[in-house]
Amino acid sequence: MTYQPPALVERRGHVLVVTMNRPAAKNAISPDMAAMLCAAWDEVNGDPDIRVCVLTGAGGNFSAGADLKLMAQTRPYDDAAAPVDGPDVSSGDLDPLFLKPLLKGYRLDKPLITAIEGYAIAGGTELVLSSDIRVAAESARLGLAEVKWGLFPMAGSTLRLPRQVPYTFAADLLLTGRQVGAAEALQMGLIGHVVPDGSALTKALGIADLIAANGPVAVRNILRAMRATEGLPEAEGFVLETRIGVETFQSDDAKEGPLAFTQRRAPAFKGR
Q1: Active-site residue among 10, 43, 146, 184?
Q2: pTM for this one?
């Protein structure tokens, strides 16, 4: 039998396409896949030539989340103490702020677009919540099923979801564990685009190309400002936004853009 890596990583111009590749298991996340996702995230942040990342799944599904068959054998977190009444919740190998494969405690400094076909359940939905732009096929199914199996969504969903959709929708999804279709997910604001089945990746790549054609410094700093000012009072947010904006205007890209406009040509951005 030919070996199939659990994730595929492909460069497409300035876009890195990461495909979770365990189709027989609905792309459930195994330790090997998790390691490859971590390496891909390092590549995105470490390579200035990469301007956008697209994450998708092989075989008609996004991801069914953690591999519960493997989890039943290994019982993760058995050795981790997690008291709820103090700031120190780390013990053994558990870092309370860090679950890198699912982008908890490790943020990409370039935009992440998710292209969702089929199932995006549990950890699959948690990956969606960590992304910036979300495209789902009409028959896609999303949900946080951990509660059904007596588990907890460890990749940040109890924090991220109530910040991204109205509280009542977040409570519904987290506490019932039910799945929602793409149309309902769009109505909630959980995703941004619904497309015909089989075309989620095409749509995501089209969006990625639009972003990659823009000034890389501006893209990174706009994303940085959006994240850094989240939850801040307006006055504090404006101070931080202005600092990041001035930094952007001082870049070489900010000189190239207006020059290209006056010369009626496409900008040749260098990302600095």
Answers
A1: 146
A2: 0.89
Identify the three-state secondary structure at position 152.
coil
Active site residue: 10, 43, 117, 126, which one?
126
Closest CA to 266 of 205, 215, 204: 215
CATH number at residue 50: 3.90.226.10
Domain count, the chain: 2
pLDDT of 251-270, one tens digit each?
Answer: 999 998 989 889 998 999 98
Candidates 88, 59, 99, 92; CA nearest to 78 is: 92
Quick count: other Cβ atoms within 10 Å of Cβ 167?
Answer: 10
pLDDT tens across 5-28, in order?
999 999 999 999 999 999 999 999
Return the pLDDT at 98: 63
Q: In what order do the strands lie in the sheet with 141-143?
A: 119-121, 141-143, 180-181
Q: Residue 270 domain-assigned?
A: no
On the question of pLDDT at 67 being above 80, the answer is no
Active site residue 234: no
Catalytic site includes residue 126? yes
Cβ neighbours around 84 below 10 Å, total: 5
